[in-house]
Each structure stands twice: as structure tokens, then as C-alpha cells.
Specification:
single chain, about 15% strand, globular, disordered N terminus
């Protein structure tokens, strides 16, 4: 069969995961170098500045393991010819750059997939192709497990990026995934001032949400940024690999990992994602910045009251379990009204028998419960509360409430930029 053909089960791959979930055959013909132990995967679509990203990786301090960087230059079968032309030019330039910038410890590979089926083509599928290729490369190396690191074609990183990721997994052998610290650039000459102002608000919103979610006591609070995450191959395979979503693939993927495995936050290095506007995906950073530039208010976020309600719900839940009164959650006045309405909306009462069947103790029940009330459903609650109880509020005021009721210290803060600086400092030392 021709390499690159679309198939249900690649016949040349004996790996059970690849046989069941592989999308295409192995794409890289060169044998991997012995000692390879880190794999960086970069999806690239119509990207004008890929070489700056590759250079950033190449400038990293060499870790103990050899590193393979797998870039998936991709497009849909129905994308414009001009997009494919730019992709082809990017591929030629990138290969030329890689040949001219060889460095011990680093190998750059490029996968050219510009006729992906329109039904699935997108960033999720591109990540999947690259991450599956990393799995195949590990099989060739007879490597039991190793980190697969997700990056983006418009991002950069600090020079200790690879060293810190490698050491973090060595120091935390039980960890199967990682969220890597990130900072968008918030000043400079590359973009208009309005874009930097917008990214300040957007990143502050992201950090507010993660910290407010953590404040509730939910065990699955973590950042889910596609350019700033990593997963061990064993966990990647056991959970069916990357999804093929055209956007939000990072959120859904990391949710599956954090539900089942210990994950770590790597805050000793930094990813620098681009703040540029983009309409290529229906949501995410690029789309948000585009909408802000077109007049959408960037200064609003979810009401902190929805997180306070969720926190109270999680605090009273053990007592209802202990009394075997879970069915009363939707009616009891001690439970916030927003939560009661949401539980009815989600048919929670129908879930109770299943939760109790597999939750004979509080520990087992809690695990089962959070598999249901996972990060995705918690976000659904926040959206439900926004639509029916607490409308979005000015960002600065809600961040102030978070700071006032958590371990964050603010004092007198006059701007969102200053709040962002403070919350970044908190997230850097977060444990």
C-alpha cells in the first residue's frame, strides 16, 4: 500500500493502538536515532513564520535524550490553491533551513499532508498524525514510553524548554501528562497596540478561569493550551489518541488525560504563543483576538458567583452522599439555585443509581462523580449559569473577587495588565 494512503488499520503497524486508531501509515522513512526520548509535534497550516518556531526549538539547550521534531504541514482537500501553494513553499523553506542548521541532539522531520478529507481536516487531525507518528517511532526504537510534546507553528519557547520538560517527567515518574507554563507577548512592535491590549484581556480571562475553577475544589483544574501541553505515549495510546476536532482538540484531549492520570504543571520554563488574530478556527486565541479587533468586548468574563456556587455544591456533596440523600440535591435550599437548575437540566437524578452502584465508598463515589461532573460538564455549568443566572461581568471586577477570596494577593491594582502580571507570578510558583 502506498505510504500516506488513508486506511482504517495500517497493516504495517503491529501496535494495537495504531491498528485500531491510526489514520494513515507511517510517514517518515528515516530510522530514528538511538537515544531518542523526546518528540515535539507541530501542526502547520498556512503558516508564514514556521522557521522562527523551528529556530526557537533548535536554540534550546540539549536535553539528555535525542529530540525529534515532527512538523505536519497540512491542508484540506478543498482548501484554496493559494493555501496549498504557501504550504508547499513553507515545506521547501523548512527543509532547506533544517539542512543548513543541523545540530547534535535534534532531528527535524516534515510530514506533507495537503489532501486531508474535508470532514476531518483541521488542527486536531494534524496533531493526531504527528503524535501517532511519534508512537510509531517509539515502536521502532522499542521504547516503552516517552513524552510527546505539543507545540504550535506560531509559538516560541525559552531555551530551557526541552530540558525542563524532560526533567519534570523524570522527577515525577507517575505523571502521564503536563501543562507547560505560557506567556503571550503583551508588548512589542510586531503587532498593533490594540492586539496587545486584547491579548492581555484574553490571557487574564484564561488564567482567571483556571484559578477560579481550582478555587471550587474541583480536582481537574488545569490549562488546556494546545501549544503548551505534553503527554506520555502510554497514556496517549490508552485513551485513544488525539481527537480529530477542528478546534478545541486540546481541551477535550487534556480533559481525558486529567480524568484518569496524574498530571503536572511545568512552570520552570515558558512557551510564548502568538497573539495574532485568526479566523482559521471557530474558537480559541486567534478567533478571540479577531473578534476583539472587530468590536466584541474583551473586557468581560464569567461571573465569579458561578464558581462560588460550584464550590458550595462540592462542599455539601459529601454530606448528601453520607445521608444517602443525593436525590434531594436538586430540591434542597442549601444547594445554590443555579446548581439545582443545572442538575435538573442534566438529568442528574437518572445518574444516581449508576454513581452509587460503582461508588460503595466515598472515595470510589467521588471518582465516579468527577468522571461525570468532569471539566467539560463544569464548563457547561458555567455557561448555563451565565445564560440563566449570572450574566458575564467586567473582567477586572471578577478578577478582584478571585484575588479577594483565594491565596492570590493583589493590593491596589489599577489595570488588567497589572492583574495579569500578578496572576502570572502566582501560576509560576503554583504547586
Amino acid at each position: 500500500m502506498k505510504i500516506g494512503a488513508f486506511i482504517e488499520s495500517p497493516p504495517n503497524m503491529k501496535n494495537p493502538y495504531l491498528q485500531k486508531f491510526g489514520f494513515i501509515n507511517a510517514q517518515i522513512s528515516e530510522a530514528p536515532i538511538a537515544g531518542t526520548g523526546l518528540f515535539v509535534v507541530i501542526p502547520c497550516f498556512d503558516e508564514p513564520n514556521l522557521i522562527a518556531t523551528l529556530s526557537s526549538i533548535n536554540d534550546c539547550i540539549k536535553p539528555n535524550s535525542h529530540v525529534e521534531i515532527i512538523t505536519v504541514i497540512n491542508a484540506s482537500e478543498n482548501d484554496d490553491a493559494c493555501v496549498k501553494t504557501r504550504n508547499s513553499e513553507t515545506l521547501v523553506d523548512a527543509k532547506k533551513w533544517a539542512a543548513e542548521n543541523k545540530k547534535a541532539g535534534f532531528t527535524f522531520h516534515f510530514i506533507d499532508q495537503q489532501k486531508l478529507p474535508k470532514k476531518h481536516a483541521g488542527v486536531g487531525l494534524a496533531r493526531k498524525i504527528g503524535m501517532d507518528e511519534a508512537v510509531y517511532r517509539m515502536d521502532l526504537l522499542k521504547l516503552d514510553d516517552a513524552p510527546i510534546i505539543c507545540f504550535d507553528a506560531d509559538s516560541k519557547c525559552d531555551s530551557n524548554y526541552l530540558v525542563e520538560i524532560e526533567q519534570a517527567f523524570v522527577k515525577n515518574p507517575k505523571a502521564k501528562g503536563a501543562s507547560i507554563y505560557f506567556e503571550h507577548p503583551i508588548y512589542g512592535d510586531e503587532f498593533q497596540p490594540s492586539i496587545y491590549n486584547s491579548i492581555i484581556d484574553y490571557e487574564l480571562h484564561l488564567r482567571y478561569y483556571k484559578n477560579a475553577f481550582e478555587y471550587t475544589g474541583h480536582p481537574m483544574a488545569c490549562f488546556t493550551i494546545g501549544s503548551s501541553m505534553a503527554v506520555m505515549s502510554s497514556a496517549y495510546q490508552s485513551q485513544g489518541g488525539m481527537n480529530k476536532r477542528k478546534a478545541g482538540e486540546d481541551f477535550y484531549f487534556m480533559q481525558k488525560i486529567v480524568e484518569r492520570y496524574p498530571i503536572i504543571e511545568i512552570n520552570t520554563t515558558r512557551v510564548i504563543p502568538s497573539p495574532r488574530p485568526s479566523h482559521r478556527v471557530p474558537f480559541g486565541t486567534g478567533r478571540a483576538i479577531s473578534e476583539f479587533q472587530e468590536g466584541k468586548n474583551s473586557n468581560e468574563t464569567y461571573a465569579f458567583k458561578s464558581f462560588e456556587d460550584q464550590k458550595l455544591f462540592l462542599e455539601v456533596l459529601p454530606e448528601f452522599y453520607k445521608k444517602n440523600e443525593l436525590s434531594k440535591l436538586k430540591d434542597d435550599s442549601s444547594v445554590p439555585k443555579s446548581i439545582r437548575a443545572f442538575l435538573q437540566d442534566q438529568n442528574f437524578e437518572e445518574r444516581i443509581p449508576d454513581l452509587l452502584e460503582y461508588g460503595k465508598t466515598w472515595e470510589t463515589f467521588q471518582k465516579r462523580f468527577f468522571n461525570w461532573f468532569n471539566a467539560f460538564r463544569a464548563l457547561k455549568f458555567v455557561h448555563f449559569a451565565r445564560d440563566h443566572f449570572y450574566a458575564n461581568q467586567p473582567l477586572k471586577g471578577e478578577v478582584e473577587k478571585l484575588f479577594d477570596t483565594s491565596k492570590l494577593a493583589a493590593g491596589a491594582v489599577s489595570s488588567n495588565a497589572e492583574f495579569l502580571r500578578l496572576i502570572r507570578e502566582h501560576d509560576k510558583i503554583h504547586d
